[in-house]
Write a structure and sequence with these properties.
single chain, mainly alpha, ABC transporter involved in vitamin B12 uptake, BtuC, two-stranded antiparallel sheet
């Protein structure tokens, strides 16, 4: 990581951490705090998916399944088998990463639409298992009785405590992603996205790099999944279906491809937006679709790209205003 970019990343990270810390005191009630917790969980998944899609150029329509697999794993182990919550969470993330590794062996030989269809098939299979394995998962009715998150003897009972935990984890994951992007692995990902043949010609291990980022992306989703399960204390197949996987892709595109902060912005925007549209019960879906279309048309580079372009324009105008005019 270069000194200038590293300093910029640290400044942005510090600003984001300060915003996360201040947000609870600016919200009118705990309902909005709960919405932000869910937004941050989605942001964790989208950061990992953006590493895979935005930087490495690999499409996945199965990240909803990874999210659900981790959630169900820790739910079953802790509620039905009496495992400690920490061990259940670790098992959920580990199993998700292991399944992603096994899935990557055949699927990452594909590319483009074929890869998307393969990961879509995986997601549909997992969703069917969630619905049909009633003795284990509870079936369509869901799985209840999941204990609250407890780490090192501390139980996270209140939404405020859980918010700061999830916010802190999100900041750490964003920091890890920013460092990865500016590392040798990150440069390899961008090279693969540009041209796999050219990347292979300069000695990059194409298969190894794609597999690593696929597994890491799934692990991000798995970590969000275990935190989700122990926050709501209830999981159901409807939360991890095809629609959710597509929504994650939309969050990546709307927030801004190849941008960690775009991933966060897209996830928060599309999680919070439906809550504000609930007042328009009759036309909620219509307004939601119209807003997405307008964002894509007028901000094609995503929220992050639009914000960056606006910032550059404002700086250019300030610079022009400060320069003395020629006679």
């Amino acid at each position: 990581m270069t000194a200038g970019r590293g300093a910029g990343n640290l400044a942005a990270l510090a600003g984001f951490a300060a915003l996360v810390a201040a947000a609870p005191w600016l919200l009118p009630n705990d309902y909005y705090l709960s919405t932000l917790i869910l937004a941050f969980l989605n942001a964790m998944i989208v950061i990992g998916l953006n590493l895979l899609l935005g930087y490495a150029g690999q499409i996945s329509l199965g990240h909803g399944a990874f999210y659900g697999l981790a959630a169900y794993t820790t739910a079953v182990l802790t509620a039905a088998h009496g495992w400690p919550v920490g061990a259940g969470c670790a098992a959920g993330v580990a199993l998700t990463a292991a399944v992603a590794y096994l899935i990557s062996i055949p699927t990452l030989k594909l590319a483009g639409n074929s890869l998307a269809m393969a990961t879509l098939g995986f997601g549909l299979i997992v969703h069917i298992v969630f619905n049909e394995a009633i003795a284990i998962t509870g079936g369509p009715s869901g799985f209840v009785g999941i204990p609250r998150l407890a780490l090192f003897g501390r139980v996270f009972e209140s939404d405020l405590e859980y918010y700061f935990l999830v916010g802190g984890v999100l900041v750490l994951l964003a920091w890890a992603a920013l460092n990865l992007i500016d590392s040798r692995v990150g440069r390899a990902m961008r090279a693969i996205h540009t041209s796999e043949r050219a990347a292979e010609a300069v000695g990059i291990d194409i298969t190894g790099a794609k597999r690593f980022i696929f597994v890491l992306s799934a692990a991000y989703a798995g970590l969000a999944g275990v935190l989700y399960a122990h926050y709501l204390c209830f999981v159901a197949p409807s939360s991890f279906g095809f629609h959710f996987s597509v929504t994650l892709i939309v969050m990546v595109v709307l927030g801004g491809m190849a941008s960690v902060w775009g991933a966060v912005a897209g996830a928060v925007f599309l999680t919070v937006l439906p809550e504000f549209l609930r007042a328009f019960e009759d036309v909620e879906t219509l307004l939601y679709g119209a807003i997405l279309v307008l964002c894509v048309v007028f901000v094609p580079q995503g929220i992050a790209g639009g914000a960056s372009r606006l910032g550059r324009a404002l700086l250019a105008r300030l610079g022009a205003a400060r320069r003395p005019h020629a006679p």
